Amino acid sequence: MSLIESAIFIAWALAVVLFDSWRRLIPSSLALSGVFAALALAASRHSPFDLSFAQALLGLAVGGVALFPFYLLGMMGAADPKIFAALGAWCGPRALIGIWIAASLAAFVHALVLLARRRVVFALRDLPADASPAECRRATTPFGALHALKVRS
What we know:
By secondary structure, the chain is mostly helical. Helix content is 73%, strand content 0%. The radius of gyration is 16 Å and the shape is elongated. The two termini are 17 Å apart.
């Protein structure tokens, strides 16, 4: 694994973490740039995780399909499946299970912290009816950021 390819991945993952942590919104362009970078590096045999192009494509497909039902059920935002698909392209399909489990556990802890800080049972139900979209986003868990953080831990 080369330092340059690793730095590209780390910079992309850090951008995901920062956008999702600060704004609770991840631009689609960031997800797409991650996919394109991962596939380009895999195609040129410079993947930081030593993936072939076929493995990167399979990771992309598995990552995209795995979280899509949760988005359809309204349990997560549209960016989360996109970021998970991009992580699949970066890390391969085998890494996705560990990433998902660790991110889910971290999201659970984050939700407990939110509940403890607000001293309520259902954090979103206690928001005033006229709460701004930004206030509603702050009461959610940055799941995309937790996925991206898990890759390197």
